[in-house]
Amino acid sequence: MIKNRKLSRAxxxxxxxxxxxxxxxIAEKYGRDFRVISRWEATSQxxxxxxxxxxxxxxxxxxxxxxxxxxxHDRDENAAINILVAGGHSETLNGRGGKRKTTAKxxxxxxxxxxxxxxxx
Length: 121
What we know:
Blueprint: H1 8-29, E1 63-65, E2 72-74, H2 75-86, H3 104-119
Antiparallel strand pairs: 1-2
């Protein structure tokens, strides 16, 4: 049925909609937040440090440097941070654009406190 040009998009969209509905139900069951961001959000092209939008990159470009602040990014890690920010979470303790780097020890403590707070719900 996917080979049918008229039905293929509708069938694919329905599959993703069912998957999203399933995830929403699981999140509600376990008391978690489920947030949806725009599919057109430029998460891999926007600097996660300063918010500067660099522009369209080829898929073969895996690492890039921000022209505004000079921070080097891995494309996938940068996109993950931007998705967290778009969903309403801060990626570091000092928020977006701070000069201070979060150390592994501070990040682990933050992660532990987040898990404890989530399990207390």
